[in-house]
Write a structure and sequence with these properties.
This protein is α+β, with helices and mostly antiparallel strands and 164 residues long. It has a single domain, classed as Multidrug-efflux Transporter 1 Regulator Bmrr, Chain A (Alpha-Beta Barrel), CATH 3.20.80. The chain is 17% helix and 39% strand. Strands 1, 2, 3, 4, 5, 6, 7, 8, 9 and 10 form a ten-stranded antiparallel beta sheet that branches. A hairpin with a 5-residue loop joins strand 3 and strand 4.
Length: 164
């Protein structure tokens, strides 16, 4: 099956996020905190620089995931309380835009991983005792649910950093 994936160059991107440890069954509990981040930004008069995302830092499908719900900002800011600040790394990323309901994202992830393997691309990822530790693996939510209630039309960009 052909997919419309590509390799793109991304610049470093400051962001703010809420971190958490979840299981595959409870990933939504972190995604549900994205409005908190928008509230945190709004209270400080900071405009988002793009759509929200989930960043998967450590993946152990059998046990837990260490992920962040984040929002990009124009320039670096100081985090406080439960909101931390960081910078998404620059570099080459394998990218795929998927349109469909959230439960269909695992198949899109698998398709992107297969596409990269066919091209002998290597992920910025290492295997450790905690699981797969990723340099940067993003699900970027391009569709605002308030504007598009039909989940089958939601667009999500997968952006996985490639090894240098």
């Amino acid at each position: 099956m052909a997919i419309a994936a590509e390799v793109t160059e991304r610049t470093a991107q400051p962001y703010v996020a809420i971190s958490g440890t979840v299981t595959m069954a409870t990933v939504g509990s972190i995604a549900d905190r994205i409005p908190e981040i928008f509230g945190w930004l709004g209270a400080r008069g900071i405009a988002p620089a793009g759509p929200p995302f989930l960043r998967y830092n450590v993946i152990d499908m059998e046990r837990q995931l260490e992920i962040e719900a984040g929002v990009p900002v124009v320039s670096a800011v100081e985090g406080d309380g439960h909101v931390r600040a960081g910078t998404l790394p620059a570099g080459q990323y394998a990218v795929l835009v998927h349109v469909g309901a959230p439960p269909t994202l695992p198949a899109a992830n698998a398709a992107l991983i297969d596409w990269a393997a066919e091209r002998h691309l290597t992920w910025d990822m290492s295997r450790t005792g905690a699981g797969e530790e990723w340099g940067c693996r993003l699900e970027i939510y391009l569709t605002d649910p308030a504007e598009q209630p039909d989940v089958s039309k939601w667009a999500t960009q997968l952006a996985f950093r490639l090894a240098d």
